[in-house]
Amino acid sequence: MSIIESQQINPHLLTHKEYRLAIKNSQSGTLITMFLQTPFFHTKHLPKTHKILSSDLPQVLRTQCFNELDLPFNVEVKNTEIGHLFEHILLEFLCQIKIKNGFSKASFRGVTKWNWKKDAKGTFHIKIETQPEDLIFFESALSKSMTILNKILLSQKQSVSSLVN
After folding, report:
1. Selection from 16, 163, 12, 23 nearest residue 90 by Cα
2. What is the pLDDT of residues 63-85, one digit of tens each?
3. Are 63 and 54 in contact (CB under 8 A)?
4. Spatial distance between the Cα atoms of 149 and 142, rounded to a whole number of angstroms
5. In whole angstroms, what is the distance from residue 158 CA to residue 59 CA?
């Protein structure tokens, strides 16, 4: 089932074993609510994150990142919230796909917020500034982003399994 219909993203829920994504498009952009279903919420619990990104999506490590410590993303990625990681991956894929489709440049902006006093722990609100004409790139970028995130999350399970065996 396509999440894109008539150039608009319909409210849609994507479910994975480790997380759920609720996606809604509005005039000001796309809002993704991520509900992590893991006992951890930060990449410090996913030590293979940097290595996986280095091999599968190295450009994301050079993306601009605004954070409290003013760290470059290639440093921030080692201990950041999983929702924030997903935002950066999605932004990078949006840029890549737009350029692959003939545009000379692409730039997208995103912000990830959370309030675990108000929402359940592991809930992230990811706002991606999109223009209506950019929505044609969104489904593919989302799918690719989920694939990378799934690989990163699976790496944690594999690390734990190798310690047990």
Report:
1. 23
2. 999 988 999 999 999 999 999 99
3. no
4. 10
5. 25
Residue 47 has φ and ψ, to the nearest 5°, of: -65, -15
Q: Which tokens go with 56? A: 């599968």
- Write down the mean pLDDT value for the chain: 88
Instruction: For tokens 């699976």, name the residue.
Output: 154
H or E stretch at 74: helix 73-76
Taking the C-alpha atoms of residue 129 and residue 145, their distance in angstroms, rounded to an integer, is 16
Residue type, 85: L
Q: How far apart are CA 143 and CA 12, in angstroms?
A: 14
d(CA 10, CA 16): 19
Dihedral Cα 47, 53, 58, 61, nearest 10 deg = -60
